[in-house]
Design a protein that fits this description.
The structure is a homodimer. In chain A, strand 13 and strand 14 form a beta hairpin. Chain A is globular and about 70 Å long. Chain A has eleven helices and 17 strands. Chain A is of the alpha+beta class. In chain A, helix 2 runs parallel beside helix 3 and helix 5 packs across helix 6. In chain A, the strands form three sheets. Chain A has a seven-stranded mixed β-sheet, with helices on both faces. In chain A, strands 1-7-8-9-11-4 form a six-stranded mixed β-sheet, with helices on both faces. A four-stranded mixed β-sheet of chain A has the order 2-3-5-6. Chains A and B meet through helix 8, helix 9, strand 15 and helix 11 of A and helix 8, helix 9, strand 15 and helix 11 of B.
């Protein structure tokens, strides 16, 4: 019933996109993207929980009170954060130009920015580029848009599905950027998802929150949380499929939305700054869902665990040490840890395995770690990448 | 009144030490240390809060219920953690040999181990080395002992003071090891401090807790918390100076103890794995002491802040982003951040400074960051080191 399809953020009917270089990045790489719905759309979003919010976050939050939007304007190369009133004015000025260019009201444009914190947007340069941005808007430019929102990412991230249901065929698609500052307690990233279902905005918002909680909020690159994180969802109804609370199409749509979000989330971790492999951590047997989550989080944010993973180093005691340092309550003599079905800690003791065996377990593209606390029934999971010298190299010279 | 003196852990009267290579480390570097008081001593300790505790921690906690001890036996190269009953027996066996060798009861020996988690001690080899360890015990061997407790540390860490008070002259001295897994919420490290004052054990314990909270618990290398962290304090009364609750000598002693702990703590961060420079973060204007602490902790554990520091990269927005991601409540438009008295964020805006100016501020051996939340009166501080490619290199191959 659900099929993966091409098309990314314009896979759903009635959406167009474009991505160009507007000269915000000194490198002259693409840095300005636009996604537009040809028709009115219900809009929902999840934003960073960082107390410091970038100008585009502040503006988008205000505009979303109307629950409707038609376009998302995103720039990379500048976060437009800690830029005060001037930064708000910059963002509003650009958004006004875009609104006029495509015949919309200001409040129908949502905004996102990513890049260096504390610098102003080169507004004059971006203004001059906007006609070019609008001129290249079409359904084919989804990949250009996906390129234009990247910072230190190596690859663009796109995903889309088509789903056949009674009453028609709908689509969900999206694009995302991640790399650094990816942390749980908000998917520290930018993401735009689009769909051609019709849905009441409160339902849309609820489903977006659920999908984000299960995907973007279950990944971590470096435990940091950015000032600009945003996930947008626009639904323009062009498929003719209507979602109504309680109808059977709702769980179908929820599954499709979560599948797209999950695929984008995995791409984010796989492309984490400097990442060479992934680790999926499942914590079971916790006394509460909260403790399961905190325990998984402690493991995926531990620099000692993540550097061990980078080296494929047989030092599994570090996983146990991270578990013990978390707030989760458990009996240390009951702790079990498996890597790929091989028990490495059994009843609180490191299993004496040849180092070569453990290294083989760890030196895979994706390492599955299962931690059983044997203290209750709650479970949670989290995905992270390893911590390499490249991560440090990238981040030690980000502004230079 | 207080003078820094040589002598480390044997600066106080009546203490001896030794440090040898017992073949626990494959490198044949020194890995076994002993500190002995010639006379009965009151003993106190602070231990890791990690739920997983190494065998020597479990044994020492039990023995300290007697509030007295005469010796501390420490090995590096093996944490003796997650080793179950066998690990407990190994530790007890070695401690019994030491006790017999110097004519003490088992329970008078305290234990600490550091190194790889999950491997057993090479007991037979260590047993054979113990006569040599006991044979070299004397007052001059404090530096050998300080060398023998190191893992990835580059330098031994010793500090001692002598203090003249009415009634005589007392000493406080100590040695420590740190490097990785240094995190607040226990000084993630090993430390032995000795003094020749006489003091009731409950008083001693209270003063040790206070000194640790202000020093070892205010530093962070990588946010990780080990399974073996221990700070010991032995007081044998040989100076003739008596501490009694309420007497004026108590705050004098407390100051001396904290000074030694503080110097050792600074050495730990300066010698953090791969560290090239320090950052001292002071958070003021917080709504509560708790929030001040969490805010300082968020900054010193942020990989993005720590890699920026490594590169001396003009990217101060990352400090603000870490502050915003912490649980501290504040008005983003009131936030002020200074680096070395230069305001870099003023009322929530990044001050537009030439990148070269910011780089000069950051490229110092020790960088002072002052964050004013303007939300209350509470203050706290934390010291950390930068996050370099060397940290990753050291930890990606620790077990190999």
């Amino acid at each position: 019933m659900m099929r993966w399809v091409a098309g990314g953020v314009t896979a759903a009917r009635g959406f167009m996109a474009s991505g160009i270089s507007a000269g915000i990045k000194p490198s002259r790489r693409p840095d300005l993207a636009l996604v537009v719905s040809r028709h009115p759309a219900a809009a929902a979003a999840v934003f960073t929980t960082n107390r410091i919010k970038a100008a585009p976050v502040v503006i988008s939050q205000r505009r979303l009170r109307r629950r409707q939007a038609r376009a998302v304007l995103i720039n990379s190369g500048c976060a437009n954060c800690l830029t005060g009133e001037a930064g708000l004015r910059d963002a509003q000025r650009l958004s006004r130009l875009v609104a006029r260019g495509i015949g919309l009201a200001d409040h129908e444009i949502l905004l996102a920015s990513t890049g260096l914190i504390g610098t102003r947007l080169p507004v004059v340069r971006v203004e001059r580029a906007i006609p070019r941005l609008l001129g290249s808007l079409n359904r084919q430019q989804h990949e250009e848009a996906a390129w234009a929102i990247l910072t230190t990412d190596r690859h663009p991230k796109e995903a889309a599905v088509s789903v056949a249901v009674r009453g028609g065929m709908f689509h969900v698609g999206g694009m995302a950027k991640g790399a650094g500052m990816i942390a749980p307690s908000m998917a520290t990233m930018l993401c735009v998802m689009t769909t051609d279902v019709a849905a009441p905005q409160p339902l849309l918002r609820r489903l977006l929150r659920q999908a984000s909680a299960a995907t973007f909020n279950r990944i971590s690159v470096d435990g940091d949380m950015s000032t600009n994180d945003t996930v947008f969802l626009l639904a323009n109804g062009r498929s003719g499929v209507q979602l109504r609370a309680g109808a059977s199409s709702v769980p179908v749509f929820a599954t499709a939305l979560q599948a797209v979000a999950q695929r984008l989330a995995r791409m984010l971790v796989a492309d984490g700054e400097g990442a060479s492999r992934l680790m999926e951590v499942v914590v079971s047997g916790a006394r509460s869902a909260h403790e399961a989550r905190l325990c998984a989080r402690a493991v995926v944010t531990s620099p000692l665990v993540k550097t061990m993973l980078a080296g494929g180093d047989a030092n599994v005691g570090r996983i146990a040490a991270a578990v013990g340092a978390s707030p989760a309550r458990f009996d240390p003599d009951a702790l079990d840890i498996r890597i790929q079905d091989q028990r490495v800690v059994a009843k609180g003791r490191v299993v004496p395995l040849p180092a070569s065996v453990v290294r083989t377990l760890l030196r895979r593209p994706s390492v599955a770690v299962r931690i059983d606390l044997h203290a209750g029934r709650a479970e949670d999971r989290m995905t992270t990448c390893d911590f390499t010298t490249d991560y440090v190299r990238i981040n030690a010279g980000y502004a230079t």
